[in-house]
């Protein structure tokens, strides 16, 4: 049975053989973690706060980690300032927010999304990183802005299993962007709607806040999106999006997971609203569709039903390769696992630090 | 020679031994230190080479202004201390 790696505010943990264990980095925020399925290497992104972000990696299943190269921005032109606030736009990684392995045909490739909005690519298993200038230099970047952070960030990087050169990235708040040539050129995707903008700007694709993108591995044209303003679905690989409305108890949230085999099935984790980021009525649920988004059920037997004030961040929900096991980790340090697609959850821990990410490995 | 010493918060994350370095300014002294201990650079400076916002530098007990810190003069017997800001959570 696969393990679950758990990145938290105070260290990297693992759920293995029905028990939680500390892996490493006690006391240090772990923002994202990746186990590259091609070589087994575990990459952990740390946010030291005062001392900056770092990348560490392990080639022995987490027994030991060594510090590796972190993505570094090139020198900033002297004249770039935030067009609204007038601040200098930092050309410096303030957070690693996405780590993904490249397509199996793209040997050695890794992708890394960061705040303040740069996408980095490695072609040597993480020994070195290069800023993807084609996206960073897009003129629309001056429209992007931060959501929850001072500057925009890339939190989702989705490789198309059927097209080795196709990559979809999600930017809060800069929209979803697709490349069909391994990042040489990009097009912003259309159809998202931002209700946090004036009406005339609501459909501007370059200011959208997709909180998280999740693709069906077996039918990779199907991509689900939890957006700041609701839920969306794409059936053309993320090029265009259709809003999913009227989902009880709420369409607000951060996390989404796509069934790896069934393009009709996906899971979201609702919260009341932008202004009130806790479960509706204090009842923790997951919303699941099994008919392509036409209908949803609020499920979650085994999740706390009363006075539960958890929030699940965008990387806090994952599904394994079978589509049956779900992991759900909250900012209040609870971890739940389901073995049957979400019909029944069991509580793993209520005592972890705030959870940033969970990942089946 | 100028002495450089790091608070224990740094030492937990990176090998940053006390050392004696050359340089007439804080910037030069740190550059010399980072030449000897390159892994420490990214813990003190950001990608753009600026002092990290929550790292503080003292020269002989006086806190250095971030804006003109690197140009601050140091003497032969100066001691540079590097600390981190305190934070909650």
Structural overview:
The complex is a heterodimer of chains A (361) and B (89). By secondary structure, chain A is mostly beta strands. Chain A has a single domain, classed as YVTN repeat-like/Quinoprotein amine dehydrogenase (Methylamine Dehydrogenase, Chain H). Chain A is 1% helix and 38% strand. Chain A is built from one helix and 28 strands. Chain A has one helix at 133-136; strands spanning 4-8, 11-16, 19-24, 30-35, 42-47, 53-58, 66-68, 95-101, 110-115, 119-122, 130-131, 153-159, 167-172, 175-179, 187-188, 210-215, 223-227, 230-234, 242-244, 252-258, 266-271, 286-289, 297-299, 317-319, 326-329, 335-338, 345-349, 355-360. Chain B is of the alpha+beta class and 89 residues long. Chain B has one domain (2-84): Ubiquitin-like (UB roll). Helix content of chain B is 24%, strand content 24%. Chain B has helices at 8-13, 26-36, 41-44; strands at residues 2-6, 19-21, 55-59, 62-63, 79-84. Chain B has a five-stranded mixed beta sheet. In chain B, strand 3 (55-59) and strand 4 (62-63) form a beta hairpin. The chains are: A mainly beta (361), B alpha+beta (89). The A-B interface holds A 9, 28, 48-52, 54, 67, 70, 72-73, 75-76, 90-93 and B 9-10, 13-14, 39, 42-44, 46-48, 50, 52, 54-55, 84-85, 87, 89.
């Amino acid at each position: 049975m696969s393990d679950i790696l758990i990145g938290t505010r105070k260290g990297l943990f693992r759920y293995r053989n029905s028990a939680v264990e500390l892996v490493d980095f006690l006391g240090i925020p772990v923002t994202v973690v990746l186990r590259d399925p091609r070589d087994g290497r575990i990459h952990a992104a740390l946010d030291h706060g005062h001392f900056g972000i770092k990348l560490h990696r392990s080639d022995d299943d987490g027994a030991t980690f060594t510090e590796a190269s972190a993505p570094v921005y090139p020198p900033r032109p002297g004249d770039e300032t935030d067009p609204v606030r007038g601040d200098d736009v930092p050309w410096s990684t303030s957070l690693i927010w996405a780590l993904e392995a490249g397509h199996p045909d793209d040997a050695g490739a890794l992708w890394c999304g960061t705040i303040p909005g740069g996408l980095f690519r490695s072609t040597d298993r993480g020994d070195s990183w290069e800023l993807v200038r084609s996206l960073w230099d897009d003129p629309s970047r001056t429209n992007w802005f931060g959501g929850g952070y001072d500057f925009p960030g890339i939190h989702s990087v989705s490789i198309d299993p059927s097209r080795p050169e196709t990559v979809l990235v999600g930017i809060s708040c800069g929209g979803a962007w697709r490349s069909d040539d391994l990042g040489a050129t990009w097009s912003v995707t259309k159809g998202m709607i931002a209700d946090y903008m004036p009406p005339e700007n609501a459909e501007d694709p370059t200011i959208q806040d997709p909180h998280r993108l999740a693709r069906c591995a077996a039918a990779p044209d199907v991509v689900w999106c939890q957006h700041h303003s609701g839920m969306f679905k794409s059936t053309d690989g993320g090029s265009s999006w259709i809003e999913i409305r009227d989902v009880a108890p709420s369409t607000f949230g951060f996390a989404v997971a796509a069934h790896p085999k069934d393009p009709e099935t996906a899971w979201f984790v609702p919260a009341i609203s932008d202004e009130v980021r806790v479960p509706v009525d204090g009842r923790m649920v997951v919303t699941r569709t099994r008919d392509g988004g036409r209908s949803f059920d609020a499920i979650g037997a085994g999740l706390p039903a009363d006075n539960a004030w958890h929030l699940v961040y965008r990387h806090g929900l994952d599904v394994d390769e079978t589509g049956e096991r779900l992991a759900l980790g909250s900012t209040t340090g609870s971890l739940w696992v389901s073995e049957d697609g979400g019909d029944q959850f069991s509580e793993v821990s209520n005592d972890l630090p705030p959870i940033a990410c969970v990942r089946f490995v | 020679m100028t002495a450089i010493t790091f608070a224990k918060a740094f030492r937990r994350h990176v090998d940053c031994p006390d050392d004696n370095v050359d340089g007439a300014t804080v910037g030069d002294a740190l550059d010399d230190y980072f030449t000897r201990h390159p892994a420490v650079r990214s813990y003190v400076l950001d990608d753009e080479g600026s002092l990290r916002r929550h790292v503080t530098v003292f020269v002989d007990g006086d806190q250095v202004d971030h804006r003109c810190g690197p140009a601050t003069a140091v003497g032969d017997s100066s001691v540079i201390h590097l600390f981190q800001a305190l934070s909650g959570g």
